[in-house]
Amino acid sequence: MARPLLFGFLALGLVLMLADHLLSPPIHVGAGAADTTACAPCGAPCPSTR
Q: Which of 3, 7, 21, 44 could crosslink 40 through cysteines, CB 3.0-4.6 Å?
């Protein structure tokens, strides 16, 4: 009885983590939907050239 419940909670946790990972901004940035002035995958601006 307890084993299916445990696996259900683990599966739910994995699904929620996967959804959070796929919906996070760095995924969209890496997929080409980012600002074209950003250098880093996180969207950070390029360092100054001075």
A: 44
